[in-house]
Fold this protein.
Amino acid sequence: MDVRKLTKLSLLTSIALVIFVIELRLPNIVPIPGVKLGLANIVTVYALYNYGVRDTAMICVVRIFLGSLFSGNLMAMLFGFGGSLLCILGMSLLKRAVTDKYLWLLSIFGAVFHNIGQIAVACAVMQTFAVIGYLPFLIVTGCIAGLFTGICAQLLILRMKKR
Amino acid sequence: MKKTVFLITACAVVFLASAVISVVMLNAPSGDIVKIKSDGELLYTIDLSKSPNKTIVVEYNGKKNTLEIKDHKIRVLEADCPDKVCVNAGWLDSTAIPIICLPNKLIIEYENNDADAAAR
Amino acid sequence: MRKFVVIFVCCILFFCGCADSAHESASDISAAQSDNVSLHTAELFAMDTYMALKAYCADDKPLNSAQAIIEMLEKELSVTLPDSDISRLNNAQGEKIELNCDCVELIKNALDLCERTNGALDITIYPILREWGFTTGDYKIPTPENIRSLLTNVNYSAVWAAENSIQLPSGYMIDLGAVAKGYTSDKIISLFKENGITSAIISLGGNVHALGSKPDGSAWKIALTDPNLPQTYIGNLEIVDKAVITSGSYERYFTGDDGTRYCHIISPFDGYPVNNGIASVTVIGDSGVLCDALSTALFVMGKEAAVEHWRKYCDFEMIIITDAGEITVTEGIQSNFSLSRPYEQNKLEVIYR
């Protein structure tokens, strides 16, 4: 990996981390655990668009690891890994089918996959399938949050491209 | 382009399906498990959502209360108590307030109560 | 040098993370310590009603003692049991009767409350209550002459209380029904406290008394019955460490031959069942006896006098529901009371001091 790329990826990671930490400070509007805007996913979508699955996964893993150290919430790390990895996997599969104008769609699907991953981890950790009941709520809020971050990511990607 | 249309449709379907399921789940009756107790002793625990229509006779000191389960609801159909408060109470529809037959020491209540106690 | 800085920063990051998780494990330990405390429940039929006790404690012992207290008090205070202390007093034909201190204490307490409510609560109402059949279930409408003659034997100030004895004028009878359950719940709650219990809720036939809050620190949720439709609840009340006691015309009533509905709450002023548009009065306060007595007295007084009483004394809050379904809530309890969904359209009036 050349230094240029390494620097860029590191920069993206730190941006994601900063967004993540700032978002932690925002008050939670919906009082369901696991529901949040997920602004750091703007970076994930951007990275996936410009780099490969492996690079994006690296950014996410580092971001989640450091992020949960910052927040002191180690459970969040587990859920984050499960969610993010499935999210990246899903988005990378759909990436080719989505044109530049519809990048926000990618993000919505990413959010849905993220929620499914979270719930899968929750099922494994709590050793019960009862948490699946959460999934519909998570997906509804996830779609809305995904649309928002998706539009942000799309604007960002298209503007960066023009340069 | 076709793919995009397909993806948008898929997305909309997932969203709407989840929204509908969420709404249904939020409105689902929270307490479906009913406990029937006689003189403080738990006689039956019945899941109303699964139970077929039937009648149950509960006896206490030779006094009878006939309970009816119908269309996932429960009530006291007949009782040989003097006040008939339990029969007049009709179907058990509050998760907070049980049906009580004082003379025959019978209680019918939902298991997952909305409240910790009911003030009467 | 650079390496050193990197390691140093890494260490700081790690410890930042640890600080919070250290907090968590500390609270885990405190949770584990209280782990041997679990929910214990008891249910029994006593004092003509259904009682449910729930307490978070280590074993069933406190609940067993509570049941013993209930049974003991029932034997002392019941008007229907022929050899209860109260029955002995009622059959004394004007003699002075020695009673044990529980009983005397409660009668004195009740007399103070009769005084405080200017006779809206009157423990000597029993002869009239019996005449209407509310104690026997043999309901009838007494003749006006009958009521008038019985009313001459209704006056709480004629009850004479000494150190450990009570004297009733001949022909007088008392009934502690309006305070007995509140007194019992006070006794049980103080028993629980002596046993180190910090979280319990008891319901003595709908007279609710909570000790502390739920184990997780949240308030107890009490469902309030709709007096006009007693199988549904009109709203939820969130309370910590309070008694919640309701008097309602729906609890016990009969329909006379004249088609009128007569409820079991009888006005000591005219000897007739109260019919003033109130369907139920709920009193929330620290003392079970006070709440129990006031719920009856305020019902008798009517809404305006009840509000006046609330303004004069600052030791209770109340919720009044009328026959028309209008709900009146006092200022202090307003934020803890929420209407249940089917009742959100009901008229809710808040009374301020």
In short: The two ends of chain B are 65 Å apart (CA to CA). The first strand of chain B starts at residue 33 and ends at 38. Residues 2-27 of chain B form the longest helix (26 residues). Chain B has two domains: 1-30, 33-110.
